[in-house]
Amino acid sequence: MLADPGYSHKYYVDLTPFAKTVNGVDLLVGGLGKGGKGYYCLDVTDPFTIATEAALAARVKWEFPKATTDSDDVADIGYSFSRPVIVNTKAGWVIIFGNGYNSPNESALLFALAIDGSVLAKIDTDSGPSNGLSTPAVVDVNNDLLADYVYAGDLLGNLWKFDIRSASPGDWKVAHTSGGAPAPLFAARGPGDSIQPITTKPDVMFHCARHGYIVVFGTGKYLGSSDFDDFSTQALYGIWDYGDDTDSSEFLGPSTERLPPISPTNLIPSLCWNRLNWCGPRLAVGSCGSHPIINQFGPLKRRLLRTGSYPILPAWSSTMRDGTLIYPF
Questions:
Q1: Cβ neighbours of residue 99 closer than 8 Å, sequence gap 6 or more
Q2: 292 in a domain, yes or no?
Q3: Which of 142, 174, 144, 140 lies closest to 159, judged by CA?
Q4: 260-281, pLDDT tens digit by residue?
Q5: Domain span including residue 185
Q6: Is pTM, for the whole model, over 0.70?
């Protein structure tokens, strides 16, 4: 069939699932990917004991959305490309995922479901139209085995940070605001202010020398036929999130507002990164050989570490993953 020029693939359960033991029960959650708009949860404890169709059917815990799901929640769910994750929080065990792509409401939202499949929290970024939230990275920053923050990108190039530290899911929120509206931690833009969509899960780690966190992610999408011929500039980014959420205005904004044009002369070799002055008002001070250090970014506390057509991540990125990686879920 693949050799047939008229072949059209039909998608089914097209997303990698996630499994976690919760209160002695092995739960598996997954989505349909391009196969549909929805998520499911299965009890996969001792699977070899399942001997009949009835026993198998009894292992289905829930589907979301379902016939009784609120219509507003249904309208916020797109094709479920966002991989779900089961995490423990101060509010208890929850399943967290982005709302995916091509939802009727066209915004980017973070969903948090209870273990029974009911909606505990739905955080709207108010960032439509034609938007959707991708796979989230959930982190525990104080090693209490409870989730603190969620980072996720969207189709419009926004990297969002969500604060889920409260014991009340109703208080979970986008970490930053601007003029009372939700604001992303960072907005990725290419030449001519072109949007750089974020469709992959970010990676988060402690800063190697100072407080806060490094958030690393790439841009680009490959979701439909229009992407086949899209040769727009994409990039890898590293964001220094100071971790200071008391000032909600401390977000970076679009990358084009704060970056000089990328060229081979202002890309810093990885061996130069140990010379950066992390304490001063600049991203870095001085130069490394013929490579000038990237310009001053001003007083904002979240700074771009690296971007460009030829990205080179800091030399410590690989060792940090083994030594000081924030506890991931």
A1: 76, 77, 78, 82, 107, 108, 109, 110, 111, 132, 133
A2: yes
A3: 174
A4: 443 334 444 443 444 444 443 3
A5: 18-328
A6: yes
